[in-house]
Amino acid sequence: MVDRRVINAAGAVLEERLVREFERALHGKVIRPSDEDYDSGRRIWNGMINRYPAVIAYCSDVDDVITSVHFGRDHDLLTAVRSRGHNVAGNSVCDRGLVIDLSRMKKIMVDAAARTGRAQAGLNCADFDHATQNYGLATTGGIVSRTGIAGLTLGGGIGWLMRKFGATCDNLLSVNIVTADGQPLAASANENQNLFWGLRGGGGNFGIATAFEYRLHEVGPVLAGTLCYPSDKPGEILRFYGDFIRSIPDELTTMLAYVANSSTTSLHGLFGGAPVFAIHVCYAGNAAEGLKVVKPLRALEPLKDDMRITAYCELQSMLDSSAPPGLLNYWKSSHLKDLSKGAIDVLASYCDGITSPLSQVHLQQLGGAIGRVGEDTMAFGHRDALCVLNIVTKWHDPRESEKHVEWPRNLENAMRPFSTGGVYVNFLGEEGEDRVKSAYTPAKYDRLVTLKNKYDPTNCFRMNQNIKPA
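User: That's the sequence. What structure does it adopt?
Assistant: Structure tokens below.
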């Protein structure tokens, strides 16, 4: 028999009538362990996360979010917030508590004349991009189209347009949130400015974001695709890449990936499953100029070159097949100040020892517009790095977890001498308080704690990369 009881943080069982009252008060739907769709409802993108919430509240509107916050707070329930659940840390679901799910809040309004878009928190990048591209507009999204716009934006937001238009949060004009005491607030450059500063990079620590307003830009078809190179000379490829990305215009954003098994990715079995280096590119500008800029990449005589002029939405889904839901995922990440000989040697040696054919090592190029925003402008920072190192480990069998987790830990540790000391908060797993602090400068972290003290002093919203109140 399935246990339908709701148990709070103190171990007390909530009266069934209280849960029923909550169900009746919600415009949306409540799912509990005995419901047919509970198992699918508790699952998220990272298959390594296997948690059993007592209540999942699918909110239809802001009133539902407010009702859910009051229910969780009044009854001392551990509360997780889920927009799309596409996050390696898995903080959007909890054991025995309440999940406030926003995935059904998917309205979007585009003002083509003003070049702005207002979107609810349940949208993913694909939803958002298809709506804005109807008007030939876009803003920086992630590199996988299933990524939710809410978590992406609150953590910063790096993607294919960032070198031309800045990070996602750099294009944020306003946010609507529900605070820990159930109050709706708006934050922008003109209203609750300190909160707006913290929401751009500080994650979900200060409330539940229900809607975002973005600055949009003209974006038509882009020159994009993947060039693949053999893996037998890693030092040569990595040295070339480090030199190449230092001298390219803002219109070009690139990502280098070491792919352990080319048959497991969007390369569709090319090269007999042999490991390859793949350089993914997006040139958001004049295509003729773009072809000149990427000419050095082609001069290296790639094994595969599918660069072409393509729709922006197609580019945004280019890497989706490499990030399917349900796989066990463990990531380690850091910011690199350079691709020195020492860094290249370490990367090359560890790529040889990769433990899972599904795993990849990514170098995501920064610079350009994202590097020209003042460090103190918002919480999101570490903008002086050359690139973001993200060690993306994936596998199927839970019995193999120990070896697959050990490998990225060892690689990230070996790369620390070449790191700026910073980390992108959206790439963090469950790594502890000190690692969360590494996502910010000490002064920024102190300022975020001050905001946390004001907007969530009891740490109601702690299922996140948590900034603890003092």
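The two ends are 43 Å apart (CA to CA).
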